[in-house]
Specification:
Helix content is 71%, strand content 0%. By secondary structure, it is mainly alpha-helical. The chain has one domain (13-74). Helix 2 (13-24) runs antiparallel to helix 3 and helix 3 (28-42) packs across helix 4 (44-55). The mean pLDDT is 86.
């Protein structure tokens, strides 16, 4: 298990509830705020682990599609170079 995976298992559920609420309320700006706070507190690798394996699987299809549409309409904020 990587360090990011291990850290992701220790994230308090309250941190995720606010994020899920923002997504559920279709409040993309609030989601972005919470995402930035999370990344500054835990780091990008932990965020990727939590989002991909905990948040995203919890979303229903319409909500997941809405979130994808928001990303597409707001453009890409950053690209991580993978070797």
């Amino acid at each position: 298990m990587t360090e990011a995976q291990l850290t992701a298992t220790k994230i308090p559920v309250n941190n995720l509830i606010d994020m899920l609420a923002a997504i559920g309320n279709r409040d993309y700006s609030r989601f972005q705020e919470l995402e930035q706070v999370f990344v500054s507190q835990y780091g990008e690798e932990v965020w990727q682990e939590v989002f991909n394996f905990r948040v995203l699987p919890a979303l229903d299809k319409p909500t997941s599609q809405w979130l994808l549409a928001q990303w597409m309409s707001h453009g890409i904020n950053g690209i991580k170079k993978i070797a």
